Amino acid sequence: MKDMAQTSRLAAVTGASSGIGTAFARALAARGFDLILIARRQDRLDELARELAATHGTASEILTADLTLDADLARVEDRLRAASTLELLVNNAGFGVGGLFADSPIAGQDAMHRLHILATLRLTHAALQGMVARRSGAIINVASVAGFIVSPGALSYGATKNWINTFTEGLWLELRATGSPVRVQALCPGFTCSEFHDVAAMDRTKLAPPAWWCTAEAVVAESLAALERDRVFVIPGFRYRVLVALVTHLPRGLRRWLLVRFARRSGRLRAK
Fold first, then answer.
1. Ranges of the chain whose pLDDT falls below 50
2. Does domain 4-266 have CATH number 3.40.50.1820?
3. pLDDT, position 14
4. Which sequence positions are flagged as catalytic?
5. Predicted local confidence at residue 207, as pLDDT
């Protein structure tokens, strides 16, 4: 294994212990990056680090952290701020809480906002200052197709992912306006095969037909290819690109009407 201190290419990935985060770690290791792997489950991170070392000779630093906790978030911020060779940050950590907002325990809603918004905000700031000074680097913020479409039964998830979209686009505008070559991307996948829906206790068979499900590897491949072209919004899969284009161009009143009726007919919500 290489010495982390001697690496010339370094990437950090949050939520690296499963799903899209693990796929990013594998893809980046294959591209010659050493890694800072960040997640709550150290056993998963240890296993992934061993795999990447054996397959690619990659040096991996493990940061076990719950980014909804202030102390853990501050510790990761400090590490990113000190990483003078950091070329890429992937803000991927996230989870969903289903059900009506009024019926959902506030603790889960609060944690989701802390993770999707505050952690993305603070880790981006910690990494971006050095990148701007070095005039090199990139940040990928993992949002969602849900960030374009308000969905009854997933209110906070869509709202926080919409914030990520707006925040990332604003960063892109600032960087271009100031002539910075640093790149930022909002990655907006649709349904992706991972542990995400298991954690949220969602039945995949009731969410979408098989053709609408993407693999984490395909999502990551499209993201990294688009990063080279400096695309700010990346929506993997032509079905989702068409869906977002159609829904976002509908008059707001008609869009609301359709979403309410779709939610009622899906059986996920009860009409009052």
1. 1, 3-7, 197, 200-201, 203-204, 270-272
2. no
3. 98
4. 157
5. 56
